Amino acid sequence: MGKLTVCVAVVCGVAVAAAAAVVIHRKMKKSGKWVKAMEIVKEFEESCRTPISKLKQVADAMTVEMHAGLASEGGSKLKMLITYVDSLPTGNEKGLFYALDLGGTNFRVLRVLLGGKDGGILKQQFKEVSIPPNKMTGSSAELFDYIAAELAKFVAQEEDDFKPTSGRPRELGFTFSFPVMQTSIASGTLLRWTKGFSIDETVGQDVVAELTKALERQGLEMRVSALVNDTVGTLAGGKYANNDVVVSVILGTGSNAAYVERAQAIPKWHGLLPKSGEMVINMEWGNFRSSHLPLTEYDQALDAESLNPGEQIYEKVISGMYLGEIFRRVLCRMAEEAFFGDVVPPKLKEPFILGTPVMSAMHHDTSPDLKVVANNLKDILEISNTSLKMRKVIVQLCDIVATRGARLSAAGLLGILKKMGRDTIKEGEKQKTVIAMDGGLYEHYEEYRNSLENCLKELLGEEVCKTIKIEHSNDGSGIGAALLSASHSQYLEDES
């Protein structure tokens, strides 16, 4: 073998060895990055842990805050608003009632024909209308005139069997899902707008008076007999279907709860005690906070960058608006550690690009190769060529976020049941407690729903669990407003 041959062989050998070393180095580097990414997941999972002992502390804190909020205005982060709803539907309501459900960029108008005892809801019709963006930021008169005009069109389409009783104006239940300080069953001042609305002149005004003026301008004779928020509407709708309903919860984009309280247990109530001895309380529970809530660095960053830092902390860990965003933030941190390669995918840096419905779809992926996960990463984040191992980690992340939210919701429910004395069985009592639940998160995110219900069983124990039931109250808020209009009708005395 000549010198040249030997040299070539040596050079080739060195090159092969060097190439092998590069491959090994890359593998080690990749393996190191994977280990780092897994550390992030493990750390996040640990921070989100919700053992039963911690959930019981959260429930106790909820009960304490409920007491404080009922004792005085501003006494707690929980507003515990008095709704002036002191009588829920009984099933005896009769006649034609309307509802207006304003909760976001769309509103719905409904009419319901009630048949009285054993008659139930004989007939119902509704129409959904979208609000033009300029009406959401214009003047108060423009917004309410637009709504009143649509309501007038709807009334004009009444069929013969929907006609109201002669000589009476039509009565309306108004579901208004914005923060309001109620002053009676049919009046309340707007505290602030949310959900993209911004009409400064309406803040501090009575929203029923604003609507009434708009109805008069339309020449429509209609009286608002109940102003309610969507959670209270859900409670009324649930109660009409099942007399054992005493709590309602909305788990959707946002979250809230309402329940039936003994009037004597509300120290801040200074009026005459209602005949029923009861009062529905709108908790505004999304604003609950406690040192026992398992908050992570991702939750704190989300809160700091939100439009309302320090507010709605509970809602920010349990509701549909935020779950997908928490998930995105953890994924982004993993991407910074090269989970998806050397560059963080630009789309992943966009806040709220991963909505909770997307997270839910990935969480529920049962295909062997997790194709739904792969497709969502490709279509929404423009991340392709992910490994099955990587996709499995993404499903695991979804599970961590959803499970924590669901279990904390269950702890909140336990807090309400404790306040009502319904977390134990009293000897000789055959008490049934039904919770009316509504909202897209509860309805469509099956893993979340199952986790919540299983956790509540775990918290209550087998015996108590037999007395507690969760019922889905679909579209309770609109129907509920019409029913509350009926149960607070000015003509009830005439019929008794």
From TrEMBL:
An example Gene Ontology biological process: glucose 6-phosphate metabolic process
Keyword annotations of the record: ATP-binding, Glycolysis, Kinase, Membrane, Mitochondrion, Mitochondrion outer membrane, Nucleotide-binding, Signal, Transferase
UniProt GO molecular function: ATP binding; D-glucose binding; fructokinase activity; glucokinase activity
Domain of life: Eukaryota
Residue ranges of every copy of the Hexokinase N-terminal domain listed in the record: 41-240
Transmembrane residue ranges: none
Signal sequence interval, chain numbering: 1-19
Pathways involved: Carbohydrate degradation; glycolysis; D-glyceraldehyde 3-phosphate and glycerone phosphate from D-glucose: step 1/4; Carbohydrate metabolism; hexose metabolism
One Gene Ontology cellular component: cytosol
Cited Gene3D superfamilies: 3.30.420.40, 3.40.367.20
Hexokinase C-terminal domain boundaries: 247-486
InterPro entries linked to this entry: ATPase_NBD, Hexokinase, Hexokinase_C, Hexokinase_N
Membrane topology, record value: Single-pass membrane protein
Subcellular compartments: Mitochondrion outer membrane
Main location: mitochondrion
SUPFAM superfamilies to which the protein is assigned, alphabetical: Actin-like ATPase domain (SSF53067)
Enzyme Commission number: 2.7.1.-
Membership in a protein family: Belongs to the hexokinase family.
This protein's name: Phosphotransferase
Biological source species: Gossypium hirsutum
